Amino acid sequence: MFPMIKKVIFPFLFCSLLIACNRSAALKEGAVAESGEIKVIKPASTENTIDISPYLDTIRYVKLELTDESMVGYIQKMMVFEERIYILDTHTSSLFVFDIDGNYLFKIFSVGEGPKEYMQVDLFDIDSKKRQIVLTDLMANRVLRYNLDGHFISRTKIPFWIDGIVPGHDGGYVMYTNYLNNKSTLKQEYNLLYLDSLMNITQSYFPYSSEQFIKLTSPQGSVFYPYNGDFYFFTGYGNTIHKVGKEELSLVYSFDFGDKVFDISRLTDEKSAKEYLKKKTFYSLYAIQETDEILSFSLSEPIDSPLPFLFHGYYSKKTNNLLYSLAFVLGKEGQGQFYTPSIAAYGSWLIAEIAVESLLSWKESTQNDRFENKFLEQRKQFTESLEIEDNPVLMFYRLKPF
After folding, report:
1. How far apart are CA 286 and CA 241, in angstroms?
2. H/E element, 374
C-alpha cells in the first residue's frame, strides 16, 4: 500500500508546484489585431440639449413585478438573454430574474461561507455558449456558475486580484485587473488576461507594473459588454473598444480625443498621479452598449471638477453619423427628460433604467398638460399605473436610422 500512496501523492504535489510556478512565470504578451475597418468616433460638444423624438422609433416600458421576494434595491447591472431579464442588485447581493414583460421568476441569493455560497456578489454575466449564469465574488475572489434556472453548478478560485471578468470560450474566462497589485502571483502584470476553465493563463495583454501606480477607481458596472454572442472590452482610462475573440483581441472602435487621451505615463509616482487624476484633463468612457445599428456611450469630458458632467452619444454604425449632447429630451420644449445612459442592449433595443420617483415627479408637474408628442403621451399613460413603492422601471427603446 505504501508505494501506491507515494505514486498518488508525488504527482499531485508536482502538478501543484508546476501550476504555482506557471502562475508566477513571465507571460508572453499577445498582439492586438485589427478587425477590418476600424471605426473612429470623434465626439464634439455642439448642443447641451437635443430633442431625441425625431430619432426615436419605439419606446416600451417594463415595470418589474414587486413581491416580497423581488424588491430590487439597486441595479448594478442588467442583461436580457432569451426573453429573460437578469438584474444584479449589489445592495442585497442578489440576482433577480424576470421574464421579458417584467413578471418575477426567481432569484439567486446564497450569502454565506458554505461550499455553494458567496460572501457577496459583485459582478455577473451570462455564458451564452454554455447557457450558464456566472457570478463573481470579489471579496472571496471566486467565480460561481449556475444553470439558467438558478441551480448551483460549480465554484472556482480566481488566482489573482481582478476588477472585471466575463466568460471566455470553452468554459474559460477573460479578466480585467485594473492595475491591481498582482506581483505575488505574476512576475509581469497584465491588465487583460485570458484563462482556460482550470484558471491557467493562456493569453495576456497590456502590461504594467503596479509598483508605479496608485489605486485607480474600479469600473462602474463593467468594462465588458455583450454583443452578438461575443464580449467587447473598454476601460474608463482609454479610448478604444476591443472585441474579445476566441484566439485574439481585436480593435474595432477608437475615440478621437486628440491630446485629451488618458496618459498612463503620468502615473509614475503617487504625487504626480494624484495631481493628474485630480485635474482630469482627459476623457473617460462609460456605459457602452451596442446593437446592429447603434453604438451607445457616455463620456466624462476633461474638466477640473469633483462632479464632472456626463455627455451621451449615439453613433450610427451604418452612416457614421453622431448624436452627442449633455442631455436628451422628449419634445421641442424639453417637456420630458429622456433617460440615459443605456445600461443594456437586447436585439435592436437599447435599455435604460428609470427611477419610479422621477416618473411620478414628472407626472405631478405635467398633470394638466396635453402632449402632441406621442412619446410624452405614452409616458403619461404609463405613469398612471405606478406607485412610489414600485420597483425601478426599464425603458426599452429603438432609434430610427440617422
Report:
1. 11
2. helix 374-383
Cβ partners under 8 Å of residue 359, min gap 6: 379, 382, 383, 386, 393
Q: 326 to each of 152, 256, 329, how far by Cα in Å?
A: 43, 18, 10
Angle of CA points 139, 142, 145, to nearest 5°: 130
Instruction: Tell me the three cell numbers of residue 322.
Output: 453622431
**DSSP SS3 for 70:** coil
- Of 112, 113, 81, which Cα lies nearest the Cα of 99? 81
Cell of 58: 419605439
Separation of alpha carbons 96 and 73, rounded Å: 11
Per-residue model confidence as pLDDT tens digits over 276-333: 888 889 999 999 999 999 999 999 988 765 566 889 999 999 999 999 999 999 987 7
Q: Which residue is listed with cell 476553465? A: 197
List the beta strands (DSSP E) in 215-341.
224-227, 230-233, 240-244, 249-255, 284-290, 294-300, 310-316, 322-330, 336-338
User: What predicted TM-score, i.e. pTM, was given to this entire model?
Assistant: 0.90
The conformation of residue 269, written as its DSSP 8-state character, comes to: S
Q: pLDDT for 127-184, tens place per residue?
A: 999 999 999 999 999 999 999 999 999 999 999 999 999 999 889 999 999 999 999 9
What is the spatial distance between Cα 293 and Cα 289, in angstroms, rounded to a whole number? 11
The label of the residue with cell 484566439 reads 247
Q: How many CB atoms lie within 10 A of CB 241?
A: 23
226, 290 contact by CB (below 8 A): no
Please state, in angstroms and as integers, the Cα–Cα distance from residue 347 to each residue in 38, 133, 186, 228, following that order. 22, 19, 39, 8
Q: With the C-alpha atoms ordered 13, 16, 19, 24, is the resulting torsion angle positive or negative?
A: negative
**34: how many CB neighbours lie within 10 A of its CB?**
9
Cell 471578468 belongs to residue: 165
CA dist., res. 401 & res. 54, Å (int): 10
Buried b (16+ CB within 10 A) or exposed e, 291-303: bebbbbbbbbbbe
Contacts of 4 (CB under 8 A, 6+ apart): none
Using alpha carbons, select from 60, 58, 61, 59 the residue that is nearest to residue 391. Answer: 61
The SS3 assignment for 178 reads coil
What are the angstrom distances between the C-alpha of 26 and each of 50, 57, 189, 384? 51, 52, 9, 61
Distance CA 207, CA 192 (A): 8
